[in-house]
Write a structure and sequence with these properties.
This protein is mainly beta.
């Protein structure tokens, strides 16, 4: 089974996802990224996703060919592939990569049109069912976000997404549930909210005493 996409696209989706991968060694299932492919008309969506439990990022690119079984990659393997997939601007239109694997194959092979071949072993730990974390409609969106805040360290991860360089971040808060973030047409993510004690009325604003 073989899927083909632009090397630059592989670099983008994997780089985007790695920004959200956990570095906590006690949670090995989150120490890397997951790759999935989905048929959408004539296009194969190539999706890379990662989470650190507090944020989650999903990045998409166009592919063609076979639908591959989903597989997980360790962070070290993903970083190595990102390094190799990085492509000069003048080569982005024609440098491609074939991704080959099957349900029975424990390895994934990445064959670049410029001659590089990388074979990596699929990570053994099962990635969480991430799709169920996203709302299916706007029914759960919050009009009143009183007392809801977001950790700056986690929010800053979305600034590392490639699409953030040319698109604003659209934010959809939800009370007591992860807020949804969208950047451009090919990235979405979630961020866990933080309850702010004492902040109970939306719209209340006052300058600090030191202002």
């Amino acid at each position: 089974m073989k899927l083909t996409l632009k090397s630059h696209a592989l670099h983008t989706v994997m780089s985007d996802a790695l920004a959200f991968s956990s570095t906590d060694a006690t949670i090995p299932a989150l120490n890397g990224i997951r790759i999935e492919t989905v048929q959408r008309g004539a296009i194969v969506d190539v999706i890379a996703v990662a989470t650190d439990r507090f944020t989650l990022g999903v990045s998409r690119a166009d592919g063609s060919g076979d639908i591959l079984p989903g597989f997980d990659l360790t962070a070290s393997d993903a970083k190595n592939l990102v390094r190799i997939a990085k492509t000069l601007a003048r080569m982005q239109s024609y440098r491609t990569v074939d991704v080959e694997t099957s349900d029975d194959d424990l390895n994934v092979m990445f064959v670049f049109s410029t001659g590089e071949t990388v074979t990596v072993r699929k990570a053994e730990h099962e990635f969480p069912r991430w799709r169920q974390l996203f709302p299916t409609d706007d029914a759960g969106m919050a009009d009143d976000v009183s007392g809801i805040g977001y950790t700056p360290e986690y929010l800053a991860k979305f600034g590392k997404v490639a699409a953030s360089k040319r698109n604003p971040m659209r934010f959809f808060p939800r009370v007591s549930k992860p807020g949804v973030v969208m950047i451009g047409d090919d990235f979405m993510g979630i961020i866990m909210p933080v309850r702010i004690p004492g902040d109970t009325y939306r719209g209340t604003y006052a300058t600090p005493v030191w202002f």
